[in-house]
Description:
The protein has 529 residues and is an alpha+beta fold. The chain has helices spanning 3-50, 53-58, 64-79, 154-193, 199-215, 234-240, 253-256, 262-268, 308-347, 351-375, 379-394, 416-434, 467-470, 490-500; strands spanning 83-88, 120-126, 129-140, 143-153, 219-224, 229-232, 272-279, 282-292, 298-307, 398-401, 442-448, 453-460, 504-510, 514-522. The protein starts with a helix and ends in a 7-residue tail after the last strand.
Amino acid sequence: xxxxxxxxxxxxxxxxxxxxxxxxxxxxxxxxxxxxxxxxxxxxxxxxxxxxxxxxxxxxxxxxxxxxxxxxxxxxxxxxxxxxxxxxxxxxxxxxxxxxxxxxxxxxxxxxxxxxxxxxxxxxxxxxxxxxxxxxxxxxxxxxxxxxxxxxxxxxxxxxxxxxxxxxxxxxxxxxxxxxxxxxxxxxxxxxxxxxxxxxxxxxxxxxxxxxxxxxxxxxxxxxxxxxxxxxxxxxxxxxxxxxxxxxxxxxxxxxxxxxxxxxxxxxxxxxxxxxxxxxxxxxxxxxxxxxxxxxxxxxxxxxxxxxxxxxxxxxxxxxxxxxxxxxxxxxxxxxxxxxxxxxxxxxxxxxxxxxxxxxxxxxxxxxxxxxxxxxxxxxxxxxxxxxxxxxxxxxxxxxxxxxxxxxxxxxxxxxxxxxxxxxxxxxxxxxxxxxxxxxxxxxxxxxxxxxxxxxxxxxxxxxxxxxxxxxxxxxxxxxxxxxxxxxxxxxxxxxxxxxxxxxxxxxxxxxxxxxxxxxxxxxxxxxx
Length: 529
């Protein structure tokens, strides 16, 4: 059943129910009041008649009805009563609207108290039908010598009640029609306000939105134009270090988290994307977007929060994959060239030279691999360095690993991925520094674990750095390579990884000669917080 149908049925049922209850109560009260008023009126008239001197004089005559009948009928017509019956001490009628009943005994059986000298109001059935009667005794010398009975038919009261009841029914009908119209217009306005959706659809959309908000890994916080929180998902609770069972909806955003700039977005209606934002010492990337209604008016703002460290880890993983791929591609290309050389020597029947070429290559490769396996036993770091050696060969860069290097004593709590990030990005930076040189491209790597620190040193004979920009090289997005995209990230990642390991980085450079980066990582502070 649709919303407007429910509203109309609900309002109609309510009006009918209230109207029906009102009618029953009102009619009962009205009927009771009319009977009370009619009885009191009848009693008042009966008491007045019982005191009239003419009535008392008539009782002293031989034929009282001759005097009493005309007087009683005159009074009856004046007060619009159904009957006025006066009886003597034997309950014989001395007056009656029907002259044929004069002289006959009064009926109804309700005169007992009157003969005791009391004036009463009764309901009884007489010759004219059910009536409400007012009865009063006629007293003479302290004795009851007669009775006056003034009556109104109950049928007349019922007719009056029915007339009023019809008016109430008509009134309720008009109210019902008005209620239907009001319900119709209310339902239309409600449907417009809820975009034509039905309550079940709204409930389903709410559940769907809640499930979506809780399934994403970004923190979502929305506010209204007054800065009160309207939506906050579980991830946002986690970022804010607030238990999820703590109700945040309805609270001011500044009471929960300061400097969100969401209120600025509400006032300016300008979106902001990927702005760095700090919460309890953690760096997040925040995107803030205004919420607009169908008229283009700002009705709130929503912010999405992403942990920058997670993005950094993702970039590191992608960097590793890319480095591995480049290493494999370079190695494949290098060995293809060597196979072509060997094929040429065999075709020229230079077998001795072919054997010498194979022996030399095996000795060099096996010697370097044996050195790496001995001095850098960690397979992740050793494999990564070997890939960089192959890449350097393809790029025609003389890349050497210092034979004094040793990287055996690396504490298990130190994150190997961060070490790979540091070494890989420093080597990549060095490769870029010498890449444009025509000849003499040299890059060297030295690592050592002697002492209380891990030392990583990368040197290149590139063009060096201008002292004016040297202090900016670790900023995210800073680069001197204007022709490249996705640059300016490597050294920023190196700085973040070093910070995570509690280490430090220094460098020395001389324009047109060299650049040396030196990283020191304490062995007892290498745990990521």
